[in-house]
Amino acid sequence: MIRRPGLFLACFAVSAALLLVAWSHLSGHYLAALIWVVNSALNLSGTPLSLPLPQLSGNEMVYPGLAGGVALFVATPRSLRWKARWLAVLLVALCLLHASQLYLGAWMAVAQNAARLQGVETSSAVGLLSYLGELSETWGTVAGVLLLWFMAIGGLGDHRVADPD
Amino acid sequence: MSLLALYSRLRQGLGFCALFALYLAGLALIFDRLESVFGTLYLYPVSWAAAFLLDLVGVPVQLDSGPLAAGFCVLEMEAIVFHVTFECTGVFALLIYFAAVLAYPASVGSRAWGLLAGGPAFFAYSVARLLVLGVVARLAPDWTQFFHLYLLVFMNVGFMLFAWSSWVNRVAQPSRGHNPS
Lengths: 165, 181
Prior knowledge:
The complex is a heterodimer. By secondary structure, chain A is mainly α. Chain A has four helices and no strands. Chain A has helices at 5-44, 64-75, 80-118, 124-153. In chain A, α2 (64-75) packs antiparallel against α3 and α3 (80-118) runs antiparallel to α4. The longest helix of chain A is centred in the first third of the chain and has 40 residues, at 5-44. Chain B is built from five helices and three strands. In chain B, α3 runs antiparallel to α4. The chains are: A mainly alpha, B mainly alpha.
């Protein structure tokens, strides 16, 4: 549990600002790495599509939630070991999510194109994936990161204030 | 077994995180069904209050609520136009806060206090964010994009956790006889 919410908010505000600035320089490289991985997966699965590498300009950045999620765990008053462990979990989870979004987006584009060419409606699975993708690109990812954070801080619901380390 | 006893048993079993996810899913469904009501009761008042305060501090702004049915209001300033959507008003952070309050094992009175206090707190915070963003757009337009992301996305999470942690420490835990300090 967070015993000093004001201090936590201040730490989060500072770390979020710094990480956001850093991420503005790194997000392009992250996206390039993701696209390389996803294109490899698309190639392996035989999907006839390859994602182009977008050119980010100036202050443009992608996946800012990753910086926000890192700031959240950095600002949480826990040991360094706790932060390292949960930051690793967070980064793996977000990378998998982002790669999945790109991969499924490509797969849905192919499915929808094929359905259009055949003059049939796309399956309900495509519709559901489209809805989930939209959700994950808005506040679904925020909710997921917070759920992970709640799991990490522990001690919720009983009188122990858990500090696992 | 009474409904209350059954609910209490389920609650103990599911734990906070599962309950949080369930409540959030339920609130998301409610929002989806009653989006127009949220627009009228939250999005428009936040936009109106932000426009009023921006005018007050010397940033001329026109509020257009015409697109409210489409889920946004327009704040038109000299050099920039804001489309105030639900994301901009922090309503999703408010729903996440509500889910966290409902999921935390506290007395009914404590949870009611948390829910009732959360609405006005988030309203004030959302208006303040739009005010700051409007001032930044006027004084340092190159920083608008950065502050848009920082204030309207990142600090939403920070404020939500600040509000929830404050409620847990000051209301929920003391009501259970646990002194957080």
